[in-house]
Amino acid sequence: MQPTKIAKCLMIVLPLFTAACSTTTGEDESIATNAADTATTSGGVASNGTANGGVEVSTLEQKRQIEIEQEKMKQKALLKTSTIFFDFDESNIQGKYFEVLQAHATYLTKNPSVKVVIEGHCDERGTPEYNIALGERRAKSVAKHLQNHGVLASQISTVSYGEEKALDKSRTEAGFAKNRRAVLVY
Amino acid sequence: MRIFLSLLFTLLLIKPSFAAIEIFITEGVSGAKPIAVVPFEYNGFQTVPLNVANVIGSDLGRSGKFQPKSEFEMPQIPKTINEIDFTKWAEQNIDTLVMGQVRDVRPGLFAISYQIVDVIRGQITGGATQMLSNGELVESNDYIVFASKPFQVEEGDFRRAAHSISDRVFETLTGIKGAFQTKIAYVLVNDDAPLPYQLVVADYDGYNETEIVRSSEPLMSPSWSPDATKLAYVTFENRQAQIFVHDLYTGRREMIASYPGINGAPSWSPDGSKLAMVLSKDGNPEIYLMDLLTRQLTRLTNNRTIDTEPSWAPDGQSLVITSERGGKPQLYRIDVNTGKTRRLTFTGEMNLGGSFTTDGESLIIVNRTRGKYHIARQDIRSGTMSVLTKTYLDESPSISPNGNMIIYSTLHGQNQVLALVSVDGRFKARLPSGVGQVKSPSWSPYLE
Predict the structure, then answer these.
(1) Domains within chain A, CATH numbers bracketed
(2) A143 and A102 in contact (C-beta within 8 Å)?
(3) pLDDT tens for residues B227-244?
(4) What are B284-324's pLDDT values in tens digits?
(5) What ipTM describes this predicted complex?
(6) Which terminus of chain A, N or C, has less C-beta within 10 A?
(7) Span A16-25, mean pLDDT?
(8) With contacts defined as CB-CB under 8 Å, which chain A residues touch B327?
(9) Is any Cβ of chain A less than 8 angstroms from the Cβ of B236?
(10) B163 lies in the same domain as B236
């Protein structure tokens, strides 16, 4: 039997056992004990060995679970990053955003019913109409990247706001840099 | 004393009036022709709703061609032509006077008449209404360049009436049709408001600001129909760019383009039958023409780079567009019938947002040189370009229908504001707004 199945079994059985214990009072105790016995028996069958083996397996599993959880947390954190920034007049995605976009791609491929809107934005240099075109180029650059990582075209739509929705209105170089962005909106 | 009294008189009569946008002239007063618009004479029993002379003076000043004198600089305040002391005015180097009279017709209705006077001619003839010619006494008032008949004006229509006088004065003295009764459409953005984006239409001087649409999402690119009754613009209210046509009189609005991707940069053809626009439904931004009757689209460009910002030549036979086909954005002229395309700009790193001047002989451009964006003018035949502005991050130039002035959007301090520059670059003014950012100005055609 695969360890995961054992683990699942234990996860169901053990709480039942403890729950039964904690809730039993007075006359019901014998029945409860019987139920607990049955549970123990089935647990033994499931683990196909002694109680010790069950404990050992579950420890390893916990470690694995922690790792899985950590990875999930990391992916979740990466997914929280929904904005990527661009250089002036550029629509190429910088290498530092590949991990973030990979996380989004994984999430979207695992959840094919989820749709994402990619917004393209620009700083205020250049004309509004040119910036609409440039913003679209940025949004499409992200869309293409996601598609290359398995996301369906039908899950993605793009909209360019050009220079119309600046994040930072300081009109400094730093401010401009913050405004040159693509945002993934779920 | 007389000046003081007249000023007091004026102050008492004038109701305060408020403009959403004031105009500060920043350059070009010195090259302009001195003119005096004398306070219009009134001795009726009502309250004159508006200082007509002030409005006319401001109009003429903002044209960049005149330098209107303040009341303090006027040597006298003549009520009628007979009272003019020509020598006094000539000594002040004031060549031209505009004066007028307001009369009561009935409550709420006035009659205005006005005269344009040539001071130099008046000085030569001595201002005599009669003179000897071949031994005969003849009428001689050739120093009166123009004298209007009295015309009736409703109380609420004084501002428009004043602008109409400005139009007449301007055309009489320059030979150029006045554009003081035109309007400007622009976008106001106030991030603190629940609906931050507003498309508004105001008189060219910022008065009578009227909201056309207010939205939670961006509004862009207003373009006037040639009859000035409709605006085409871009709205993101449905979370994508769509082009709407909005009737300013009925308020009826209609979505005319909502294709996947960009629906942008609408530009009304001079005959009103078509809209040039940018659509990216076929992959990347291309120029299309939409027949407004049939809604049929004709694709004009086809290349893998950005094509945008179509603007019509006055004859409606070609468009100037911005294209990246040569690398960086530059302006090209495209024949709407043959599709034949020719590059127009070569100066500077980028040239964008082009439009033809009203005579079709020059282009008004957003030029980028050494990272700076300025409004420039290029002679089409010679290709010579001259930069007109010194402001920061200039964009969205729009030319007045008489071809005299350009309104554009620029940064002043932390704010996006509108600014004016004359087509010859000599006159400059700023139009600061009270609240929020002002952008995408579009000057209306003449209002019939």
Answers:
(1) 85-185 (3.30.1330.60)
(2) no
(3) 999 999 999 999 999 999
(4) 999 999 999 999 999 999 999 999 999 999 999 999 999 99
(5) 0.88
(6) N
(7) 41
(8) none
(9) yes
(10) no
Q: How far is B223 from chain A (nearest CA, A)?
A: 13
Regarding whether B349 and B247 lie in a shared domain, the answer is yes
Alpha carbons within 13 A on the beta-carbon side of B45: 3
Q: Taking CB atoms and an 8 Å limit, are A136 and B285 in contact across chains?
A: yes
CB contact under 8 A, B221 and A169: no
B430 in the same domain as B352 = yes
Answer whether A72 touches B (CB < 8 Å): no
Q: Which residues of B touch A127 (CB under 8 A)?
A: 309, 322, 352-353, 366, 395-396
Bridge-based pairing state of the strands B341-343 and B151-154: unpaired
* Buried-exposed string B377-386: b where 16+ CB fall within 10 A, e elsewhere: bbebeeeebe
Which residue range forms the structural domain that includes residue B237?
183-443
Decide if B233 is inside a domain. Answer: yes
Same domain, B252 and B151: no
Which of B174, B205, B223 is the C-terminal boundary of a domain?
B174
How far does chain A reach from its first CA to its final CA, in angstroms?
40
Under an 8 A CB cutoff, do B393 and A134 touch?
Answer: no
Q: Do B236 and A159 touch (CB under 8 A)?
A: yes
Residue that wins the pLDDT comparison between A102 and A33 = A102
Q: Output the domain CATH number for residue B418.
A: 2.120.10.30
What's the CATH number where B97 sits? Answer: 3.40.50.10070
B448 is a domain residue? no
- Give the pLDDT of residue A184: 95
Substitution target in B349, B355, B395 with the highest count of A β-carbons within 10 Å is: B395
Which of B149, B174, B199 lies at the terminal end of a domain, its last residue? B174
The token pair at A69 is 């959880």
Query: What is the number of alpha carbons within 13 Å of residue A48 lying toward its C-beta?
Result: 7
Look at residue B3 and tell me if it is in a domain. no
Six token digits for residue A91: 């629509």
Per residue in B388-403, pLDDT tens?
999 899 999 999 999 9
B396 and chain A: CB distance < 8 Å anywhere?
A: yes
Strand B144-147 relative to strand B109-118, pairing: antiparallel
Does the global pTM surpass 0.80? Answer: yes
Helix, strand or coil for residue A8? helix
The band of A73, judged by pLDDT with boundaries at 50, 70 and 90, is: confident
CA-nearest residue to A138 within chain B is B284
Give yes or no: residues B98 and B189 share one domain. Answer: no
- B11 domain residue, yes or no: no
Residue of A nearest to B279 (CA): A133
Do residues B246 and B359 share a domain?
A: yes
Per-residue pLDDT for B257 more than 90? Answer: yes
Chain A CB contacts of B395 under 8 Å are 126-128
Facing residue for A136 by CB, picked from B236, B262, B373: B262
Confidence of residue A59 (pLDDT cuts 50, 70, 90): confident
Nearest to A136 among B220, B280, B329 (CB): B280
Chain A nearest C-alpha distance from B26 (Å): 23
> Is residue B425 domain-shared with residue B292, that is, in the same domain?
yes
pLDDT at A37: 42
Residue scoring higher pLDDT (A59 or B161): B161
CA gap B183, A69 in Å, rounded:
63
Helix (H) or strand (E) holding B170: helix B158-174
Average pLDDT, chain B: 90
Going by C-alpha positions, the residue among B153, B90, B91, B154 that lies closest to residue B117 is: B90
Average pLDDT of span B25-46: 85
Smallest CA–CA separation between A75 and chain B, in Å?
A: 28
B431 and B300 belong to one structural domain: yes
Alpha-carbon distance of B16 to B381, in angstroms, equals 49
